Amino acid sequence: MEIVHLLRAAAVELGLHSARFAQANGMHPTDVRALISLMDARRAGEELTAGRLGALLGLNSAGTTALLDRLERAGHVRRERGAQDRRKVVVALEEAAVDLGWAFFGPLIERSTELLRGYDDHQRAAIRDFLDGVRQAAAEGAHTPSAGASPREPGGGRTR
User: Fold this and answer.
1) Reduced to 3 states, what is the DSSP secondary structure of residue 110?
2) φ and ψ at 90, to 5 degrees?
3) Strand order, beta sheet including 48-49
4) Which positions ≥6 away from 158 have C-beta within 8 Å?
5) 108-137 tens-digit pLDDT
6) Which site in 6, 94, 122, 159 is 20 to 30 Å from 60, CA atoms measured?
7) 45-102: pLDDT as tens digits
8) Cα 135 from chain centroid?
9) 41-46 long-range Cβ contacts below 8 angstroms, 24+ apart
10) CA pair distance 31, 68, nearest whole angstrom
11) φ and ψ at 89, to 5 degrees?
């Protein structure tokens, strides 16, 4: 359980780091999550429509429109015709948003990659598999107990 608790603590610290970025740049935390989703999509060579971005963030149509309007006004994104399908309107990142993110998150990213250099290929593969498994479990909602169930640690101890 020590590793699970460390992962939880790391997730909390990453959330706080992201919140500091949002506050320092006059953004809502959802704005930051949207920019991260757009950066991930760009890295994967994918285009995101407003609807797809909203679905990823759990927003309805009105919320997605308000989000994109805020990000456009701030100069972080633009709406444009899709390169793969010109009939679609996709959300594109402005380079200024990437630069802003790198200026704030770059030192953390560099420190993280520095830490990973201390592990061999087999250890990095194990770390990758573990983190991907946790991500998948969270995305599937596997962490949510059914109604009325009390969460317990393996072995019968209560989690706090």
Assistant:
1) helix
2) -115, 165
3) 48-49, 89-93, 77-81
4) 150, 151, 152
5) 999 999 999 999 999 999 999 999 999 999
6) 94
7) 999 999 999 999 999 999 999 999 999 999 999 999 999 889 999 999 999 999 999 9
8) 11
9) 42/93
10) 8
11) -100, 125
How large is the average pLDDT for residues 28-32?
95
**Residue 159 has which token pair?**
């989690």
Residue 59 buriedness (CB in 10 A; 0-12 / 13-18 / 19+): buried
CB under 8 Å to 127, separation ≥6 — which residues?
A: 116, 119
3-state class of 104 per DSSP?
helix
- Residues in the chain, overall count: 160
Q: What SS3 state is found at 91? A: strand
Cα gap 17→22, rounded to integer Å: 9
Tell me what pLDDT residue 160 has.
Answer: 45
How many Å apart are CA 151 and CA 144, to the nearest integer?
9
pTM value > 0.70: yes
- Residue 156 backbone class (left: φ over 0; alpha: ψ -120 to 50; beta: rest): left
Going by C-alpha positions, the residue among 118, 112, 77, 115 that lies closest to residue 96 is 77
Task: In whole angstroms, give the CA distance from residue 138 to residue 135.
Answer: 5
Other beta carbons within 10 Å of 154:
8
